[in-house]
Amino acid sequence: MPTGGFHPRILSIGAYDNVYVEVIVLMFMIMAETNFQSYYFTLWKREARRVLKSPEFQAYIGIFVAATPLIALDLIMNGGYVSGTAFRYAA
User: Fold this and answer.
1) Residue ranges per structural domain of the chain
2) Could you tell me the pLDDT band of residue 65, with boundaries at 50, 70 and 90?
3) Distance between CA 37 and CA 87 in Å, rounded?
4) Judging by beta carbons within 10 Å of its beta carbon (0-12, 13-18, 19+), is residue 50 exposed, middle or buried?
5) Are 51 and 41 in contact (CB under 8 A)?
6) Cα 50 from Cα 31, distance rounded (Å)
7) Which end of the chain is more exposed for a tag (fewer CB within 10 A), N or C?
8) What does the DSSP 8-state code read for residue 9?
9) pTM for this one?
């Protein structure tokens, strides 16, 4: 899934300036960062709860959920962004 930064436009995904495109890319980024063993248990063994109980997955989602509001707060206080735009850029 990673493209190594290749994109036909100079601004990459930001050139589209579309929240829906960014959300889709965000979902694929989260999927790409998830351990492939988790996909095995989810898709073939039908044990999705095992993935959700994985310490690695919990730590990854926890860091993402904790860091996003902190980065958004910094963008609001120091960057002059409004809250919606700050959360969009923080994620």
Assistant:
1) 51-90
2) very high
3) 30
4) middle
5) yes
6) 16
7) N
8) S
9) 0.74
